[in-house]
Request: fold
Amino acid sequence: MKALVLRELKSVFCSPAGVFFALAFFFVSGFMLWLFPGSYNIIDGGYADMSRFFNMVPVLLIILIPALTMRLYSEESRNKTIDILISRPVYSLGIYLSKFSATFLFVLVTLLCTGIYIYFIYQLANPLGNIDMGSIVASYFSLILLTVVFIGIGLLGSAITRNQIVALVVSIFICLFVFYGFDLLSGLFISGKAKAVVASLGLNYHYELMRRGVIQVSNVLAVFNLLILFVLLFVITYRVSKRMVFVCLFVISVLNFIFFFIPDYRLDFSADRRYTLSDYSINLLKNLDKDQSLAINIYLTGDLNYGFQRLRNETDNILNDFDRFANGHFIVNYIYPYSGNKASNDVQQDMVDNGMPGIMLNETDREGKLSRKIIYPYASITNDKDTLIVPLLKNIVGNTAEENLNISIESLEYEFIDAIRLLNQVKTKAIAFVEGHDELSRASLYDAEELLSKYYSVNRGEIGNDINILDDFDAVVIAGPLSKFNNTEKYVLDQYIMRGGKVLWLIDGAFYSHEELARLGHSASIKNDLNLDDMLFSYGVRINPDLIQDMQCVSAFLVTNDSQSTVLVPSYYQPLLMPSFDFSVTKNIRDVKAGFASSIDIVNNSPNVRKNILLTTSGKTHLVKVPEPINFDVSDIQEQPAYFSQAYVPVAVSLEGEFNSVFVNRVIPDSIKTGAYKTIQKSQSTRMIVVSSSDIITNELQGQGKDTQVLPMGYDRASNQLFGNREFIVNAINWLTDDEGLMQLKTKQQRMYLLNKSAAYENRDRYAILSILIPIAMMSLIMGSVFLYRKRKYENDRYPEISI
Reply:
């Protein structure tokens, strides 16, 4: 056996077919990946990964491996040398294994020579060395598995004919069918489960899963089954004993029997484990209604640049992951909005009406030519009753395009799971807006109620004196009260919290007159006394009687003295608050627009309560202590360089844990209806969020009468921008009512692997040349060494030394 393997190794490494394979592989890879512009060029893509290489290589191997193997049996059959081998004490299986091993080792050495590409990407990464090596190694492993199947097909094609060209054509056809054919056949089926089953019979299905850096036992088993299948076909069609047929069948049976009892382990080799679904997602998908399918339409289609194609690919990947746990309940369709006969303007308007406005994509090629196109980065999920839109793109102002795309990919699991959860929830959770203390009007909260009604049953009402009145609500919202809470209401609210209730406090620390400020341009300010200070202090925070001015703010139009024109000035009392990017409520949202906010202090360090600052001011802040008058005079402020002397003042804080009741050692109000109820002095584990600006949840109204239009929360008329208020409010309520871990999906992070574009473009030609020459030089050295060794050996055998 050893002699046969050495014979075949020398033959492959010294053959014209081996030289052709290596040169063709390195030339095509080098030119496509480093020199020619297009979808495979690594530098044009801008990402420090090998995904383009692993996308391209299967096509090369489908052609080149049959070219390498076409002569291994057909030539020996034609020259009758195979008969000489069989006539010797050598098993046919030994001959097969020697040819297989030699070919595999040659292809493996060729692939290893492309390791220089990893080094180049390592050098070009920003920062240096920022690459996902674990994912790359796993992808190479998947490529090796692909290689062994193609070699098995190539040997089968070579064995069934003496004509090398026929062997090449037959092998390429079988390779193409095994890799792509089942994907095409799956398109003939309507059922998502049937599509998945048919597609899983092909190599591409398993390769796509593994080349991302995820190795699963079932995928490895599927590849080995295909390999043994082609070995079995070789045994049946070639001159091999029938006993070997039974041996192959026995191996297939034993292999599958063993793996049947082994758990289907799934190893995610990516550095940030970005392809591992959370337990919450898996449980949700496994428990979907078996009699109901979900239709998912993807509108991010067409000719996309690499960044958006990456977003599209990651969308495909996560839906495939979902479908593995959902038993084929998904029917995924890819819809190109402009595929019909409608005019482009009509298509754009239809998409806007459906809640999916297009995004203008501007691209510049190497020659500086600008091209513009409208894309639709959305998906829709439909069940028998309703349809929800899933935005695939997060567009946060201030981030680069790469950062926004990375954030969008991070958010895919949350966005899809949240929509699936809403479509399949049986019981809707309930929240309540508290009334009776001059809170914000229903018109001012219209957008908030409309938005939250998609997730919850929204109610309104007064607290009263019934101790159990709030028990049916998963969360309570107190939005902008201006009059005091009495002790009875405080007791009901406090005991609701003690029993595990959740509260979103939107409390203004100072009061001013909107009317005077609008009419006169100035107003007095006083403390907004709500009789809640002792409660909030007991829970761990204090809202101060002051007003925040911040350099990072929106602008407002002011009428000049002659009332003939308006000027745009900074509105320092309307800051743009900075979200915390490491907490689920505020992760990946835009700045939040606030108005007349106050500062918040954390007043105790109780180990039973975890506190997180959610929103802060910028690094240039000033606090106006009440009762100072407030106005829009900006000239005086701008003349004081040291006016904004404070920084990062907290405006929103989350509290989570076990809270102490404010009614410890206090008398229960006489008016309360308690019955046999006893005061709870320490709460269950619960949550609350305290925000010192009710303006965050307020929407403005535009127009009058029938023409009245509700503007969204966080909309700024002057800049025509929509800030992150809506996402903040929805995330806040979701976090408060989340008992199962949905919001943890928002904390999922994915590292960015970017190229240093300036260094890459400056050295493009050098890297292109080296990427071609170095692998060729490495392979030439190996093949030359084998050739010289073989030459010296045969020369010594031909002229043996004679001793006298």
Summary: Residues 666 and 679 are 10 Å apart (CA to CA).
